[in-house]
Write a structure and sequence with these properties.
By secondary structure, the chain is mainly alpha-helical. The chain is 68% helix and 0% strand.
């Protein structure tokens, strides 16, 4: 009987597995997302998933790729014509996409895209940068730096707020300030670290963009 079920398992759609995994991610987080839990949700035996994914990392790779597909499908995600506008829009869109999933930044940053879909926007971005006067090396460094800033920012943000509207225990800034009363500047910094993430992200991204322009002489 087990052999017969395994032989029929290719009828399980790969996209169905990924969609289910992304939905469960919001319920369980990355640590709780197991192939067994996904199989149970799909009402199949866990070995059936191995027709599509050899291990959990392969599934995470495809989940990250699907997250990217959904992100670039959003109108205006690519940004405007200038390199600054492109960098701002792309990283704002990335943050928004990652915040749609519990542990979204962890899934995205630790995975490898499948296929070459991401190369479409990458080519457009690098073309825009090089036509603006950047060398290819400078263009890669600039875009990578902004990308890594966004990934790191959202990783920390989701450590405090796993999903919009949620907040982990232990991140009460008033309580933190009371415990750190002997260190007044550090105590006051709590609100700048653990509150108003939208404003802080925009300020940080603005610093990155300004720094790129200054470092490479782009006005």
């Amino acid at each position: 009987m087990a052999t017969q079920r395994t032989q029929r398992s290719p009828r399980l759609d790969k996209k169905q597995v990924v969609d289910t995994a992304l939905r469960l991610l919001n319920e369980t987080g990355l640590d709780g997302l197991t192939l067994r839990a996904i199989a149970k949700e799909l009402d199949v035996q866990a070995p059936a998933l191995y027709w599509h994914f050899k291990n959990k990392q392969e599934l995470l790779d495809e989940m990250a790729t699907e997250m990217y597909r959904r992100m670039v499908d959003v109108p205006g995600a690519a940004g405007g014509e200038g390199w600054r506008e492109r960098l701002l829009a792309a990283n704002r869109g990335l943050r928004s996409a990652l915040l749609s999933y519990r542990d979204g930044a962890k899934v995205f940053s630790g995975s490898r895209f499948t296929g070459t879909l991401h190369a479409v926007e990458m080519e457009r971005t690098l073309t825009l940068f090089t036509e603006a006067g950047f060398t290819l090396t400078q263009a890669v460094r600039a875009t990578s730096t902004a990308f890594l800033y966004t990934i790191g920012f959202v990783t920390e943000e989701q450590g405090v707020q796993p999903l919009p509207g949620e907040r982990r225990e232990g991140y009460d800034t008033d309580e933190r300030a009371r415990r750190m009363a002997d260190f007044p500047l550090s105590a006051a910094a709590g609100a700048e670290i653990f509150e108003d993430y939208e404003r802080h992200f925009e300020e940080g991204l603005g610093l990155i963009v300004a720094g790129i322009g200054a470092r490479y002489g782009m006005g």
